Amino acid sequence: MESLRRYASFIATSNHYDVLTDTSGSRRFICVRLTGSISYSDKINHDQLYAQAMHEIKRGERYWFEGPEEAILSETNKEFQVQVPAEQLFLQFFRAAESTEKGEKLLAVEILGRLQEKKLFNLSATKIIHFGRILHKHQIPSKRTQTGTIYHVVEK
Question: Which InterPro entries match (predicted)?
């Protein structure tokens, strides 16, 4: 067994726009929509680029994203986010309740149960686990209780 420092760098291209599948948000990705051809005519001096990056890090420059920047990335990346069927169905049949509305306070499993009653899909443990993340991503008002997290929603 060998202990190594963690390094990560990844660049990818796709001909599709629905590439992000993380239901909790995509703050670790910077997605860019290209509108033209990529020019390969300029050579990149990778050694100099690395040296500049290391110089900045050694000077104490921040190299991570913080809350406001993560929010901007998540917002920008929305067009690249895959919308799973449970998410699409929730948005079709429910919405977040306004703070002044009575609405209903339901557990994620209760919301999924109502969607299942419409015979739209089969309920599974995996869907239940991920569904709470989907509700959080859409900023559905929630509150932790002894029975679990309840979400303040209105059925359309």
Answer: DUF3874, VapE-like_dom
